[in-house]
Amino acid sequence: MLLTGTFVRVVDEKQRITLPKRIRETLASGKESSAQALFLTPGTDGSLALYTEDVLTELGHRLANSSPNGRDVRAFSRLFYAQAEHVELDDQGRLRIPSQLALLAGLTNEAVLIGVQDHLEIWDRTRWEAYLAARTKDFDQIAEQAFVVKSS
Description:
The strands form 2 sheets. This protein has a 6-stranded antiparallel β-sheet with strand order 1-7-8-4-3-5. The chain has a two-stranded antiparallel sheet with strand order 2-6. The protein is built from 6 helices and 8 strands. Helices cover 41% and strands 24% of the residues. By secondary structure, the protein is an alpha+beta fold. The chain has one domain (6-146): Transcriptional regulator MraZ domain (Chemotaxis protein chec, 3-Layer(aba) Sandwich).
């Protein structure tokens, strides 16, 4: 599953956003049923992250293999999983953002959905635009660092 793209969406009065059809189709791929479970979690840098159950399970395996007794792993696991919520799409492809997660991400009336390889991030539009403005100028340097092979 490969999620890409940027989509601006309205957050309605019931804290719902509509996922683009292409994203819904991609999230449903890889399963015999289109009813793949979805989980909304705290993200990084003030965003939220939407994972399929398969991807969230794989993330959990990677986390468990890193250092399950490490202080940071324990703290992250507690904060991450305690705030993770199972969410469902309605017949119109809308997703309701739970109040505590909407507050965490500072969501107002507009959200930006961005595909980030295996998950979707949900940002408040103003917060995303500020992040983008601050980081775009450093794209080349960020790209170089992202592909540096770390030695063991």
